[in-house]
Design a protein that fits this description.
It holds the Pfam family FtsQ_DivIB_C. The chain is an alpha/beta fold. The protein is built from nine helices and 14 strands.
Length: about 300
């Protein structure tokens, strides 16, 4: 009101609105300000949302099958151009430690056709392939500088000739098959073993043959009987029958008798020492007939 009692209206149309405006923030503004002060929310807004938009854009871009195929072809082209560089190409193969026959067998089974990129070589599969050969005990395969595929082989050494169910075979000292043998005359330098299960006890057979060194020139071979014991086979159709337990002392006893009394020069076919406490001699038919005649026993030859 002015001094005369009249009401004076303000000339500013916003004066009333400003007078009624609450200076405090609204509820939503307060909540947004509190939420923005949260570190996790700020990280989501600043990092998460842009990352999501980028990933979504890439997903939409790469969802096209033509683009996918083009990218795959380009990647394969780049990779092949790197793998086929001259410094990565394997051109030669060298095999050390193998005989001529094994060398040829290894080259036949090797699943590679050189020249070939070293990235295309599966060395572990190649090692297993070479080790599958009977004559190979151990093998090492690696790629050397200059594009050389180096194969180092440890070959099994034949120790005996085994006459088994499948014919003649060469075995190493552990009883592992080395190769087949066409005839005994092909390896006369190796001792002959025979019988089922003899391949599982090659070491024992070799030990017995070594102990029989004094009569080595008469030994034809050694036979496994019932997978339990050994018979030492000699010329003149003689056989030393050894016990299943402690065959070494039993063989030593026979050798001692032979040295003292020339036992193996007598007309005996079998020296049965399976029972060391009661050794038995089996004589030839002619010697048995002569002995019976000397004892006055009539022998019927029919």
């Amino acid at each position: 009101m002015d001094g005369g009692g009249r009401v004076v209206r303000s000339l500013n149309p916003f004066s009333k609105r400003q007078s009624n405006c609450d200076p405090a923030p609204s509820r939503w503004s307060y909540r947004m300000e509190r939420l923005w002060l949260t570190p996790a929310f700020r990280k989501i807004v600043r990092v998460g949302m842009p990352s999501f938009l980028v990933i979504a854009s890439l997903g939409v871009y790469f969802s096209d099958s033509d683009r996918q195929q083009a990218i795959a072809d380009k990647y394969a082209e780049i990779r092949r151009s790197v793998e086929e560089r001259p410094e990565f190409m394997v051109k030669l193969m060298a095999i050390d430690g193998a005989s001529a026959g094994l060398n040829s067998a290894i080259r036949e089974v090797m699943p590679v056709d050189l020249p070939l990129s070293s990235f295309d070589l599966d060395l572990e599969a190649m090692r297993k392939q070479v080790e599958s050969l009977d004559a190979v005990k151990r093998v090492e395969i690696r790629v050397r500088a200059g594009g050389l595929l180096q194969i180092n082989v440890e070959e099994r050494v034949p120790a005996v000739v085994w006459r088994g169910p499948d014919g003649l075979e060469l075995l190493d000292v552990g009883g592992h098959r080395v190769s087949a043998l066409q005839s005994r005359a092909a390896r006369p330098d190796l001792p002959l073993i025979a019988g089922e299960g003899a391949n599982a006890t090659v070491a024992e057979a070799l030990a017995l043959l070594e102990r029989a060194a004094p009569i080595r020139d008469r030994v034809i071979g050694i036979v496994r009987i019932s997978e339990r014991r050994w018979d030492l086979v000699l010329d003149r159709a003689q056989r030393i029958m050894l016990p299943p337990e402690q065959p070494m002392p039993a063989l030593d006893r026979v050798l001692a008798l032979n040295e003292a009394q020339d036992l193996l020069k007598r007309d005996v076919t079998h020296i049965d020492i399976r029972n060391p406490d009661r050794p038995t001699l089996r004589m030839t038919s002619d010697a048995l007939a002569s002995m019976r005649e000397m004892q006055g026993i009539k022998v019927n030859n029919n």
